[in-house]
Input
Amino acid sequence: MSRPVQAVIHLDNLRHNLALMRRLARDRTLWAVVKADAYGHGLEQALTAFSEADGLATLEVRDARFFRERGWSRRILLLEGFFDADELVEISQLGLETVVHSSWQIDLLRHTPVEKGVNVHVKLNSGMNRLGFKPEEYGAVRAELEAIAGVRVLGCVTHFANSEASYAADGILPVNRQLSAMGKLACREDACMANSGALLFHEEVTGGAVRAGVALYGLSPDSRVDRNTLGLKAGMTLEARIIAVQHLNAGEAVGYGSRWTAKRASRIAVVTCGYGDGYPRSMPDGAPVWVCGRKVPLVGSVSMDMLEIDITDVPEADVGETVELWGEHIDVNTLASLVGTIGYELICAVAPRVPRVSGGR
Ligand SMILES: *Cc1c(COP(=O)(O)O)cnc(C)c1O
Output
């Protein structure tokens, strides 16, 4: 390691989470969602850890090419479909499956000859109003697709806008509205509906296949529900090192803008991780950082390459000590809540300059 900041990817924890999703999926096809560089964990690591998934779901043909080159011969699904005719040719060559969400994609299919044919899933908009045809159009769209030479329709997919846990106080089941928009389609064997939230919190979501994303990486899809109660384990530990310690008198300040001022004589450690690595600049004073087996508070504004923590109460912490920004001890969802976002965004935002290092077997 040169500059001491890295994302340790816990392959054994990723496998544990996959096995948990497998139990919840029961006999349904389990797609492991690996978009956005496997939610920041690295495609290489995902490929190793998710070898027991039935298929990998992503957005880029480039990712699919990588998986095929590495010997992945199982299914691969493109969740946003194809973007132009060239991609369609490669999708056919690589034996990928693709979503079809709009009529312009049907036109492209009609006008692009593909030797080996294409396997498609019809994307249905059951209420999120992002991508897809109306559920009542399914029959007609399916017929239109099946009339094109080489096109095979494998089923329909839809995505939930609200799949968080429901509480009695809410009085509503968040997936219900979309399930009823799906109507009888929801019960079909060829329907693929559940994301992590639906798998963990909504047994009533059936169908023949599921798409697990964030839970595979050890994040609860609902920040109000602790990952430990769900049995999920951290997929990533973002860690860095203390490279300097400053001794401050009461009244002295730390970092850009002098946001934090010492109320007492303090030992402040400088840690090699900043917003240039993906740790949010907006993180407030007091956010937890893990060092020497305990939590200490972040103090002062996060810089591009460094951040500071108060180690006054941890005398054994010193230069050379490893620090966990998030991972097994600090839940990334806790930090996300402090800056008004979701854990998904933080893990996806780990910068390319941070090496992904495999831990575990
Ligand atoms: C990202 C995504 C998923 C996975 O969602 P999670 O909440 O991460 O489980 C499933 N389906 C589609 C269409 C997606 O875009």
